[in-house]
Design a protein that fits this description.
The chain is mostly helical and 94 residues long. It is built from two helices and two strands. It is elongated.
Length: 94
């Protein structure tokens, strides 16, 4: 159910971004440190900034995700070791 709502939200976001880009088609000069564009649409620039920000956000979050995954693997390894030790102790008692 959550996946369904996520897809609906993504579709609505894509429609809103498309409408925003089409409504803001005024040409403006874009001057970056390494790139100069004489005419770029305001909507396109805003959409590009949104996408670049999203990519940097995912990159920043991936570090935390890898840390959690590493912790999960370590915990699973410790659990397996403890279960093996418990089974060994149970077999020695019986």
């Amino acid at each position: 159910m959550l996946k369904f709502f996520s897809i609906i939200i993504l579709i609505l976001l894509a429609i809103a971004l498309t409408a925003f880009t089409l409504q803001n088609s005024t040409a403006v000069p874009l001057d970056l440190f390494f790139l100069q564009i004489d005419e770029a649409s305001v909507g396109g620039v805003a959409l590009g900034a949104f996408l670049v920000g999203g990519l940097f956000g995912m990159l920043a979050a991936s570090g935390a995700w890898f840390k959690v995954k590493r912790s999960e693997v370590s915990a699973k390894r410790k659990l397996a070791k403890s279960e093996k030790e418990l089974d060994s102790l149970r077999s020695n008692v019986a």
